[in-house]
Amino acid sequence: MPINRLDPAGHLGRRSPWTFVAVLAVAASLGLAACGGDDDDDGDTAATATEANGAADATGAAGETVDVTMTDFEFDPSDPTVKPGEVTFDVTNDGETLHNMEVEGPSDKAELPEDLQPGDRDEFSVDLSEPGTYRFYCPVGNHEDLGMVGEVTVRG
Ligand SMILES: [Cu+2]
């Protein structure tokens, strides 16, 4: 009887240290997890920044938009700077004749789907995921020669 009582006590006695070790192990792993969590947070911050850039590269929705005003015969701004990605040009014709805007991107050209009537506004997107400087101009008539040219700089 006393032995039976001692035995459960002994088990408990043996169990307790193990339980204590288990608690330590859990605490340690929680501590590690917490440290890991901090590391993950740092990693997430970097990953988020990378993802943001990746998203900008991959989708027009996340890309930069540049507002451009066309007059007779200039672009304003004529030298915008953007982040790499799919860039949208939101273009307004404040001139008194038809204009358009064509960007010679690294992989392809892009322009407004139709020449803009005076007072009209439209937008188009172009893949500018490669850093560099890309020319744009008005393809209507001789507007290019009249000064409707510009350069968009894509930051590296
Ligand atoms: Cu023009």
Mean pLDDT across residues: 76
Oligomer: single chain
> What are the secondary-structure elements, in order, as H or E?
HEEEEEEEEE
Task: List low-pLDDT spans.
Answer: 6-13, 18-61
Major beta sheet summary: 5 strands, mixed
Q: How many whole angstroms does the radius of gyration measure?
A: 32 Å
| N-C termini distance | 82 Å
Task: Give helix % range.
Answer: 25-40%
Number of separate strands: 9
- Strand composition percent: 25-35%
Strand order of the largest sheet: 3-9-8-5-6
Shape from CA axes?
Answer: globular
Strand-pairing-aware structural class: alpha+beta
Count of alpha/pi helices: 1
Give the bound compounds: copper (II) ion
Description:
The radius of gyration is 32 Å and the shape is globular. Helix content is 37%, strand content 30%. It has 156 residues and is of the alpha+beta class. The model is unreliable at 6-13 and 18-61 (pLDDT under 50). It has a five-stranded mixed sheet, with no helix packed on it. The structure holds copper (II) ion. Copper (II) ion binds next to loops.
